[in-house]
Amino acid sequence: MNLDLTEEQIQIRDTVRELCQNEFASHAEKWDREDDVPRWAVDKLAELGLLGMAVPEEFGGLGSDLRTTVIVIEEIARVSAALAILFAVHNSVGAYPIYEFGTDEQRKRWLPRLTSTDMGAFSLSEPASGSDASALLATAVKDGDHYVLNGSKNWITNGMHAWTFLVFARTGGPGPKGISAFILERDTPGLTVGKCEDKMGLRGSHTVTISLDDVRVPEICRLGPENEGFKIALSALDKGRIGVAAQALGVMQAAFGEAARYAQQRQAFGGPLSKIQAVQFKLAEMERRVQGAKLLIQKAAWLKDTGQPCTRAAAVAKLYATEAATWVTHQAIQVHGGYGYVKEYPVERYYRDVRVMEIYEGTSEIQRLVIARSALKDGVGV
Ligand SMILES: Cc1cc2nc3c(=O)[nH]c(=O)nc-3n(C[C@H](O)[C@H](O)[C@H](O)COP(=O)(O)OP(=O)(O)OC[C@H]3O[C@@H](n4cnc5c(N)ncnc54)[C@H](O)[C@@H]3O)c2cc1C
C-alpha cells in the first residue's frame, strides 16, 4: 500500500483546506448555535464540484477515488462536523449508489442534479429497526409497472433539504433477501418530511423523519434488482463507515490542536501547562490516536479503491477512529479545565459532535460484531 498522496490529491486537499479556513471556519460556531448549516455553504462545495466526488465526469462528477473523498471529509470536519456529515452522506450513500448500481437511464435522470446542486439522503433506519436494519417494516408493493410504498423512516441526515431519498423497503419475505432500494424524489405525493431532531451535537446538520403513505412510483425508481436492495445498503455503508472515520479524524485533530495551543498559553505552577509531563502525556496519546486513525482510514479506502474486500477494514477504521475521537475530545476538555466546559472554546462543540459517530452507520458494538465474524471466518490480522 502506497500512502503517498498524488499531486491531484494534494491539490484537492489544499483547495478544500483553504475553502474551509477562509469561508467556513468563522461560521462553524454560529451554525452550531443556530442549528443550521445555511445553503450558501453547500453552494460553495458545489462550486468546486464537491457534490459529485466519486461520480464520473460524464455524469457531472469529479471521478475521484475514495482516498480523495475521505481526505476532503477530514478537512471539512476539522472546521465543522455538521458540514462534513452533510457532505459525506450526500456523496457516499446519497449520490454514488445511484451511479454504482443504477442503469444509464437512472444515472442520467438523477445524477446531473445531484452532482451540481441538489442533496441526496439515505433512508434505511426506522423507528423500530436500527442496528437490526434488515428487520425493516416499510413495504413496496408491486402494482402493474409501479410500486406503492408505505412506512416510516427516521434519523435521515440531510432529509430537511434533500431532493432524493434512497429508501429501503420490503418487496419480499422477511430478512435481508426481501428488501429493495428505491430512489424517491422529495415532491413525490405521499412522501412527507416530518420533524427535525433536536440533537446533542452535529447541530446544523438536519436529521428528520419521513412518512410514506401510498407513495406510488414507476419501476425506474427501483435501484438494482428486486429483493437485492440490502446488498446496496451494505455496500454503501462500507464506504460510509470509512467516511465517518474520516469525520472523527478531522474533529480529533482540531481538538488536539486546540489542546496543544491552550497548554502552551495557560500558566500554572510557574510555567505553561505544556511543561507539565502529565499534560504532555495526554498530548502524546492524542498524537498516537490521530496517527493510528489516519493509517487505518487510508488502508480501508485503498482496499476499496483497488477493488479488494474492505468490510472488515472499514469497520476497524470506524471503530478505532470514532472511539479515539471520543477520547481525544474528552481529554481536550480536560486540558482546558473549566474553560473547556463552556462554549467560548470550541472543544465543547467537538466533544458533543463526535459522540454520535460511535452510533450512526453502525454502532461500535455492531462494528465489533462485523470484525469478529470476519476474523473468525477469514483469519486474524488479514
Ligand atoms: C444523528 C444521526 C444521524 C443518522 N443518520 C442516518 C441516516 O442518514 N440514514 C439512516 O438510515 N440512519 C441514520 N441514523 C440511524 C443510525 O444508523 C442508527 O441510530 C444506528 O444504526 C443505531 O440504531 P438504533 O438507534 O435503532 O439503536 P439500536 O439498534 O436500538 O441499538 C441500541 C443499543 O443496542 C446495541 N445493540 C443492538 N444490537 C446489538 C447486538 N446484536 N450486539 C450488541 N449490541 C447491540 C447497540 O449497539 C446500541 O448500543 C442516524 C442516527 C443519528 C443519531
Give the count of structural domains.
Answer: 3
Report on the biggest sheet: 4 strands, mixed
Q: Which fold name is given in CATH as the topology of the largest domain?
A: Butyryl-CoA Dehydrogenase, subunit A, domain 3
Amount of beta strand: 15-25%
Helical percentage: 40-55%
Dominant shape: globular
**Can you tell me the residue ranges where pLDDT is under 50 for at least 5 consecutive residues?**
none
**Averaged pLDDT:** 97
CATH superfamily of the largest domain: Butyryl-CoA Dehydrogenase, subunit A, domain 3
Largest sheet strand order: 1-4-5-8
Quaternary structure: single chain
H/E topology pattern:
HHHHHHEEEEEEEEHEEHHHH
**CATH class annotation of the largest domain:** Mainly Alpha
Quick structural gist:
The protein is of the alpha+beta class.
Topology:
Layout: H1 7-24, H2 28-34, H3 39-47, H4 66-79, H5 81-101, H6 104-114, E1 120-123, E2 139-143, E3 146-157, E4 164-170, E5 179-185, E6 191-196, E7 207-218, E8 222-223, H7 229-265, E9 267-268, E10 271-272, H8 277-305, H9 311-336, H10 347-355, H11 364-378
Parallel strand pairs: 1-4
Antiparallel strand pairs: 2-3, 3-7, 4-5, 5-8, 6-7, 9-10
Helix pairs in contact: 1-4, 4-5, 4-7, 5-6, 5-7, 7-8, 7-9, 7-10, 8-9, 9-10, 9-11
The structure holds flavin-adenine dinucleotide.
The site of flavin-adenine dinucleotide has 22 residues, from β1, β3 and α11.
